[in-house]
Amino acid sequence: MRILIVEDNHQLNYELKQSLTYEGHAVDTAYDGDAGLAFAESAPYAAIILDVLLPVKDGLEVCRTLRARGYTVPILLLTARDAIDDRVRGLDSGADDYLVKPFALSELLARLRALLRRTSPQKTPVLCVGDLTIELATHRVTRGGQQIELTTMLFTLLEYLMRHPNHILSHDMIANHIWSYDTPGTPNAIEVYIRRLRRKIDDPFEIKLVETVRGAGYRLRTPNEKGR
């Protein structure tokens, strides 16, 4: 999933990006409120991690502006202020959750996972399409009972396809989901990853699930949709 971090502390911003990238997310970063607002309105993010005390435009103003414009993506606020009134103002501005600095990275990741589960159309930690199954918490992938090892990028791609079975996902949709703004995915790169994914989850099996829709993109077809 694609996450936006808006945090003016460069070290913390970097550490959060590294951790979320390791978790398999595509991550964009901004360091002031104006830049964060511009990023938020330029790409389909799954969630935003937003510091309150930002230069140019503070996080509360960014949050209120996004909500006023109909932006519904979950927002996790970060702040050094621990007073109840500050937390109330943060939540009243439209934030979904609030985390006080300093915090444990494991808690931030847990809160982010909870927000993503809350807003996901598929809330179960296990996704299944035919005999293909992935466990979101452990990144375990099996097909027909056979375990399949995937890299983080291939797992992220497969998860995206499995969350939208039988739906055509364009090159742009896939690129926006699995690549950061500073490392955009080209159509050729997406084709390479699709081929690698097919070698893992399709080539060893009789029934093929990943389908290329010429000129449109790719989709993961359920076996009954293929008449098998």
UniProtKB/TrEMBL annotation:
PROSITE patterns: OMPR_PHOB, RESPONSE_REGULATORY
GO biological process, one term: regulation of DNA-templated transcription
CDD domains: REC_OmpR_CusR-like, trans_reg_C
Cleaved signal peptide residues: none
Pfam families according to UniProt: Response_reg, Trans_reg_C
Boundaries of every Response regulatory domain copy: 2-116
Entry keyword set: DNA-binding, Phosphoprotein, Transcription, Transcription regulation, Two-component regulatory system
Annotated GO CC locations: cytosol; protein-DNA complex
Residues recorded as bearing 4-aspartylphosphate in the entry: D51
UniProt DNA-binding residue ranges: 124-222
GO molecular function annotation: phosphorelay response regulator activity; transcription cis-regulatory region binding
Span of domain OmpR/PhoB-type: 124-222
UniProt xrefs under InterPro entries: CheY-like_superfamily, OmpR/PhoB-type_DNA-bd, Sig_transdc_resp-reg_receiver, WalR-like, WH-like_DNA-bd_sf
Name under which the protein is recorded: Two component transcriptional regulator, winged helix family
Species of origin: Ktedonobacter racemifer DSM 44963
